[in-house]
Design a protein that fits this description.
- The chain is 35% helix and 21% strand.
- It has 263 residues and is α/β, with parallel strands linked by helices.
- β7, α6 and β8 form a beta-alpha-beta unit.
- α1 packs across α9, α5 packs across α6 and α5 crosses α9.
- The chain is globular and about 55 Å long.
């Protein structure tokens, strides 16, 4: 892999904290394979400094784009001058393109990356109940993508009730035929999605007990930094498991095309 030079472009991934971010090992080789002299660099940015940081980066000709991860997706949405259709529905962005005059164009590709990965792994069955744990930025994007792809029944769980109520209301308005359930149960799940940060660090509690899942259920844990305890426990039960690296792989072409102004 070539080292960056003064002519290289940088895609910054903003996080807080950033010690777990392993995305450059996927993004930079992909950029190189596409013939782009681009490099991804993680940047730890505290929430109170997000606005100043993004505005400063937008003034540099060295920046090809910005990627957002926890906890910045909702706040980044508010900073954008223009957003795409997925971001508009979800109220979050995970990708920012810098347009002429420093204008910030945002879009959310978490849902598209998730859905394409789930289809590739053959774990998306729209006729079966899909349980999504987490109603934050990633959870909103995933629920929206599932609904838009024709999922018939969706159960959304979250530690706090208000984000779930807001998300469920938007989904019901946008997809009136979608069956949305907020009950805490897992026995009828065809796919379980962990869209929380639980599992990012060793020793954290599991988002749920995989012993409660039926034998025919698949598990998609969006954590990419490590093989989580949820993944291990689900695999030990013989359940099909997909991890967050698959979601990253499928986001890459979508985000790169967006940063290049092709979409």
């Amino acid at each position: 892999m070539e080292l960056p030079t003064g002519a290289s472009k940088v895609v910054f991934i903003l996080a807080h904290p950033a010690d777990h971010v392993g995305a450059p090992r996927h993004y930079t080789p992909y950029f190189e394979a596409q013939g782009l002299d681009w490099h991804m660099v993680p940047l730890d940015v505290a929430p109170e400094h997000l606005t100043d940081t993004i505005r400063a980066l937008a003034r540099s000709k060295s920046v090809a784009g910005i990627n957002l991860t926890m906890p910045h997706k909702p706040a980044a949405f508010a900073l954008c001058d223009e957003v795409g259709p997925a971001a508009r529905f979800e109220g979050v962005v995970n990708t920012i393109r810098i347009a002429a005059g420093g204008r910030l164009i945002g879009e959310s590709f978490d849902g598209g990356g998730f859905l394409n990965a789930a289809r590739e792994a053959d774990v998306f069955d729209p006729t079966r109940r899909i349980v999504v744990i987490g109603a934050g930025g990633a959870g909103r994007a995933i629920c929206h993508a599932l609904a838009a792809a024709g999922a018939m029944s969706l159960r959304i769980l979250n530690q706090y009730p208000e984000p779930v109520a807001v998300l469920a209301g938007k989904l019901r308005n946008g997809f009136p035929d979608l069956d949305i359930d907020l009950a805490t149960r897992f026995d009828d799940a065809g796919l379980l999605v962990n869209a929380t940060s639980l599992g990012l660090h060793q020793g954290q509690a599991l988002p749920m007990d995989p012993a409660l899942l039926p034998e025919s259920c698949a598990v998609f844990d969006i954590i990419a930094a490590r093989r989580t305890e949820l993944m291990q426990a689900a695999s030990a039960r013989g359940l099909r498991v997909v991890d967050g690296t698959a979601m990253i792989r499928h986001q890459l072409p979508l985000q790169t095309a967006f940063w290049r102004g092709e979409t």
